[in-house]
Amino acid sequence: MRITGTFVNTVPGDIPAANWGYEEWDRELELMKRIGIDTLILLRTGWKEWLCYPSKYLQAKMDCFESLYDYLKMYLSLCEKHGLRLFVGTYNSNHDWLSASYDVDYEAEIIMKSAKEMWDNYGSSPAFGGWYMTQEISRKESFRVIELWQKVAPYCKEISNGLPILISPGMAGVKSGNVHPRMAVTLEEHRSDWDWIFGQISGIVDIVAFQDGHVSFKELENFLAINSELAAKHGIECWTNAESFSRDIGSTNFPPIAWEKLIMKLEAAKRTGHSKAITYEFTPFMSPNGNYPAGKYLLERYCEYYEILYKNKVQEKEMA
Amino acid sequence: MRITGTFVNTVPGDIPAANWGYEEWDRELELMKRIGIDTLILLRTGWKEWLCYPSKYLQAKMDCFESLYDYLKMYLSLCEKHGLRLFVGTYNSNHDWLSASYDVDYEAEIIMKSAKEMWDNYGSSPAFGGWYMTQEISRKESFRVIELWQKVAPYCKEISNGLPILISPGMAGVKSGNVHPRMAVTLEEHRSDWDWIFGQISGIVDIVAFQDGHVSFKELENFLAINSELAAKHGIECWTNAESFSRDIGSTNFPPIAWEKLIMKLEAAKRTGHSKAITYEFTPFMSPNGNYPAGKYLLERYCEYYEILYKNKVQEKEMA
Amino acid sequence: MRITGTFVNTVPGDIPAANWGYEEWDRELELMKRIGIDTLILLRTGWKEWLCYPSKYLQAKMDCFESLYDYLKMYLSLCEKHGLRLFVGTYNSNHDWLSASYDVDYEAEIIMKSAKEMWDNYGSSPAFGGWYMTQEISRKESFRVIELWQKVAPYCKEISNGLPILISPGMAGVKSGNVHPRMAVTLEEHRSDWDWIFGQISGIVDIVAFQDGHVSFKELENFLAINSELAAKHGIECWTNAESFSRDIGSTNFPPIAWEKLIMKLEAAKRTGHSKAITYEFTPFMSPNGNYPAGKYLLERYCEYYEILYKNKVQEKEMA
Lengths: 320, 320, 320
What we know:
Three copies of one chain form a homotrimer.
Chain A: E1 3-8, H1 22-34, E2 39-42, E3 46-47, E4 50-51, H2 56-61, H3 71-82, E5 85-89, E6 91-92, H4 104-122, E7 128-133, H5 143-159, E8 165-167, H6 187-201, E9 207-211, H7 217-233, E10 237-241, H8 259-271, E11 277-279, H9 282-286, H10 293-305, H11 313-319
Parallel strand pairs in A: 1-2, 1-11, 2-5, 3-6, 5-7, 7-8, 8-9, 9-10, 10-11
Antiparallel strand pairs in A: 3-4
């Protein structure tokens, strides 16, 4: 179960900025492609007042800062060059959808108008391959996001001649307590919630890729089996989002995961019928160019395990 | 608005030790000079029981450990070699100046006697270019520090034939809550406090360089304008301390800042009339030799933006 | 007082996984040997459901995951190659020994049966040089661990033809508050507790190596003197576990320590009669191949101080 997709992001939240430009991303996509990655998911094109591309609409409407660099254009250009497709994450206001004051129509308008602007300016790129809905929900309580997707997703699909819609929800397991202090979900609660949610978004969302890091390793395969079964029932394609960082290290929030744990998660996704594996997120956690030496070695172990030729010709020659 | 000064530090507090010696700092100052840095500020020569130079006075008076290496001598020597000037941070006892038991006379004596010892031993260096008062205050409530500076700063200036006095206060904005849990200051409270503080230290402190990271990006320029206006009113030179680490990343306290944010802050300081930009702190956050890969790329983006030739001749040749 | 031993670990807890394989550890042990390290201590062969070697017993008894790689075999093989000895840490269930429900007989059985299995499968290696008891106690309150060692240690020694038993307790000093929120121990409480504990394990545990990071630097030598004196009284060999990470940096839990502090601790251990220094832990904190640039420089400063030739012949040639 090789990883063939990864998130990328240039509007930092939890993970510090990489401060890369065209040259560094060019090198990175060449590496990604070489080890089998064919899909990038841009986590978000905007978040709160920060944008990764120039948007007259969002600068006026949401008082966003003007982006100094057009990362969206860069990713599309590099995806064309290296033969990858890009799922484009929409703008995310960071407004709290659990709050009664969350206005679905208002949020939908912002996302749709910025998506339209994006499609008008970048839709001619053959690498523009899909839309990513950025809201990371995990329970039925986030019903306002369902309503949002019901408005936004068909619109994005329509303006883009039917491009697919991707979501990447969490599972409200024992390791989600750090983020939202509430009781971990049981298998049956998870099944019940997502049976209902999938019923609401069937025909609207095309692909679901659950984040796989919030449940214990002992429970993981049972949760994955439910995800796969429910997605099939509701006609949604089921990928896994195999997190390449660890949630188990007390002292460091986002270090590269142990390679054995990554393999374990990927193989469990394979056994439960997932059709594709993406990761959050190749560059900081699995790349020799990332934030940690352990990331480079995670890639080496991963490539050894799946017998992937990771070094390029120049590197092979240097080693010979 | 290029960065032409940076803090350096070898008595670790929040930022881990670099464990560098003469050779590493020599290489670093060569790089600093090449990209336009002409001023170093040594954050502190001592803190609690730790010293960065041998001080018979502080070892006896404050029971400080003897320093294994004379970093003060090293910095002065390297500043001479590379043509930089060094502002020397005084000793900092870490005693709480908000406490009623804080004894201004006692603290002043320690700082003055250690400053005298330093000047006697190192004052002949032409690189000894100023004094840095290490207390990072942000509100009028720190009036005891004002009293301290009124005693200490004229003394330091007198013994050193008029060397300038630098301070680098904080702004008690929304991002200072992590450190001191209190309400963020408003623009008018900030103006009122610093009009009073500057009135007290006019003619005593020569240069102020506010830390620019504690207020929101939306508010920054308004705060900077007040700083610049008030400093001019009271005859104090106004620099900006453009922090090169991020205060916005939840999971990591001190990662390199996104390059767009650094540029944004520097340009806001330029528009509001600041005469010089320094940073806290080049080496861990902006150097290819620092703690993070993202620091190297921060420097590359920064140099691209300001069209600074960053590679040295050997490196340029290797790249050609 | 050179460091001649270090912990190694491949079952991550506080320190993120390195994701190294045979090649990386081969290079690392070659370096370790070159700078004078002759002893490795494998922190644990298993922890909770994670193992670093295949154990039919623990997979069945404790429902542990099967290890994808046999690190125990690898370390033994590499220790043979490079001429080091390996102390093998036992399995650790992570059960709370301060709880009344902690069952000493049950825990002892698990450790003894897994130790027997290890000895049967790996005992023929001449590098298998001792056993490490993984419980890190610091006070008399952990009397259940004493009872555990009284059962387990003689058994391990017996099946292995008398291999030595090592423990590495903490000192319940001011810096242990992060872990267990309780009052710091006084010198006399520490002496009283450990006089009793050593009395209980005399003839059972051969070597004690206290972790040296939980007490203040001002108190350290007094604590070390007690440790050395009590160990001698009870016929236990006394090493120091000189932690190479810092407990003083607020923002980062486990960065490399300042080199001056490491030297200070080692020299204090020398003055108080410790016979050997080990560290927790060379690879992440002192190695050029570790997690932090500062670790590489910690090794350089350490080697300069003790006049150790650190570069190998190839590197020396490259530098000439």
